[in-house]
Amino acid sequence: MSKDIKVLVKIVKYILFISWPGASRWAIASTYWSIKAGLSATIFTFGALHIFGLVSAYGQPMVIAMEWFPEKKSTVIGIVTSGYAATPLLMNYVQTFFVNPNNLAPASDGYFDDPDILDTVPSVFLLMAGVHGCFLFVGLLLYSEPKSREVENSDEPDALDLKTIKPNCEESLIVPNLDQKGVENTVDIKEVTNENTPKPELVESKELSVTPQEALKTKQFYLLVVTAVCSFHSITFMKTFYKVFGQSFIRDDTFLATVGSVSSAFHALSRGLVGLIQQKTSYKSTVLTLFGMSTVLLFTLVSTSTGGKAMFLIWVCVLYVTFPVCFVCIPAVSAEVFGMKYTIVIYGMIIFIAGVSSIVWPVIFTESIPILGWFGMFCIMAVFSSIGILVTILFPETNQAQYGAEKRNYGSTTFKEY
């Protein structure tokens, strides 16, 4: 590849790297106008466009992190994505104090109808887009290419071409030798070399690499898609309606903002912890534990209305701890099962399907809650988590021992002795 083409490819990569998260920020900002136009326009900008930009850009930082630390995929994914999870820690307070600085209570139905609050809502989308855009700009300034990519993009020829290495022990080499009288003689190594001596043979390096087309033919891909959908729906429900449910028996908007911030802190910490646990154990055991916790907590969440503020805070925080399934566990196991080369594309396909499938749920939830009630909706979400448990049981076991064996067989250059 010529130098000009490499430069062009690099420019295109940077444009794509910036454009997808930039599209998500533009979608947030454009909601300032769409929310005034109606629900459908808001769903299109803050729902469809925002989700599309998010899922398109979400995988890139994780792949870069895994390239920097290939031996610690799960752990580094958890650490990197914890930044995304920690966003509400700041934004919940910012949004609440910007929209409702006087801590006014909602109406009896759990929603606000005060004109002063409602008139302030559109402007908060511009504020969110500006804050997120600043973080994106700082992140791009700190970004640097992994060493593996620097080698690939280098114009210098490879210092060592493994395919051309041919060990040769028959080269004639003259070395000094002293006889008993101290007279120096010369010995030809070729003469004393045993021709039957085993010689190392270089085995050509193989790297596990499954293309997106090949991934579509595997059952692992579809099991991961269903797992992501089950996890994503619970996340969408909780993030959208935890505050609405809380307002039905807690008349303190500032406290509910605190619940959102504290739960996001738990979520951010859990991503790093879950990544480390999966690194030490396995994908299967980690996801089964998280889905099991989620199922129990969703079935019993309605009881927090009698337990008061403390119980509600605990339940929401622990539920947020179960969220890393879609954002930590699945991308890490995707890299292990399908290889690093196409991880960003394969995981992008998985998260895109999950994200698109959740776009319509807020509307469905809004229409269903008056009919089924909160307990009915919690039970539906718990059923999704239960399905996630069943699907994970069917997933082939993937643990560190097996991955280590795959790495030894496919991931590194080995020498075979005869």
Describe the structure.
The protein is mainly alpha-helical. Helix content is 72%, strand content 3%. The protein is built from 16 helices and four strands. It has helices spanning 3-37, 39-68, 73-85, 87-99, 115-142, 147-153, 189-192, 212-215, 219-247, 253-280, 283-300, 304-321, 324-338, 343-357, 361-394, 400-411, and strands at residues 174-178, 184-188, 201-202, 415-416. The strands form two sheets. A two-stranded antiparallel sheet has the order 1-2. The protein has a two-stranded antiparallel sheet with strand order 3-4. α3 packs antiparallel against α13. The longest helix has 35 residues, at 3-37. The two termini are 38 Å apart.
Describe, in short, the structure shown.
With 418 residues, the chain is mostly helical. 72% of the residues lie in helices and 3% in strands.
Radius of gyration computed on alpha carbons? 28 Å
Report the mean per-residue pLDDT as an integer: 76
What percentage of residues falls in helices of 4 or more residues?
Answer: over 70%
Structural class: mainly alpha
Q: What is the element string, with H for helices and E for strands?
A: HHHHHHEEHEHHHHHHHHHE
SS elements, strand count: 4
* Oligomeric organization of the protein chains: single chain
Shape: globular
Head-to-tail CA distance between termini: 38 Å
In percent terms, what proportion of residues is strand?
A: under 5%
Number of helical elements: 16
Poorly predicted ranges: 155-175, 189-193, 199-205, 398-418
Strand order of the largest sheet: 1-2
